[in-house]
Amino acid sequence: MPRWQRSGIIMAGIAVLLVVIESVDAVMNYDLNQDGIVPRQVSGLDGILWAPFLHTDFAHLFGNLLPGVILGFLLLMARRFVVVTAIVWVISGFGVWLTAPSGSVTIGASGIIFGWLAYLLVRGLFNRNVWQVLGGVVLFAVYGGILWGILPQGGGVSWQGHLFGAAGGVLAAWLMRPKKPQPNAA
Description:
- By secondary structure, the chain is an all-alpha fold.
- 63% of the residues lie in helices and 0% in strands.
- The chain is built from seven helices and no strands.
- The protein has helices at 3-27, 47-50, 58-77, 81-99, 110-127, 130-143, 159-175.
- Helix 4 (81-99) packs across helix 5 (110-127).
- The longest helix is centred in the first third of the chain and has 25 residues, at 3-27.
- It is globular and about 60 Å long.
- The model has no long low-confidence stretch (mean pLDDT 93).
């Protein structure tokens, strides 16, 4: 099976999983949303694992779904999905846990989406690959406007998740850059 087809199937499966989880959450009167990240509470650390699967409602989910499927597909095509996602997930989650307002509960996949976008935007710079840089330029032209989401905006939007997700994406690009060969001693 071609990589593009396999990548599409995986992202479609993830999208279906998120819709199923949101449907179950809706039937449960959105009780699952309390399992998100609760800042600076040890009991809120497990929310780092669950938060990307939970959304306030279907509008929140569908707002994340299209860019998530597209960026996830591109990341799968680059064969970096698992490692980049893990780095972004942890950095975004802990960043929210450390900095979000006390008493809040943070949910949603946008931290991961911002991380995927940041990774795809900057990886060419770290890899010194002109095609990846050009791809980043195209992505910036299409999705660059959402990067304003890393700034505080109010209205219940977790700019912390966006900011730390993007930072995680840059960190992943840096960590996964090709290592320079060490010169041999004579």
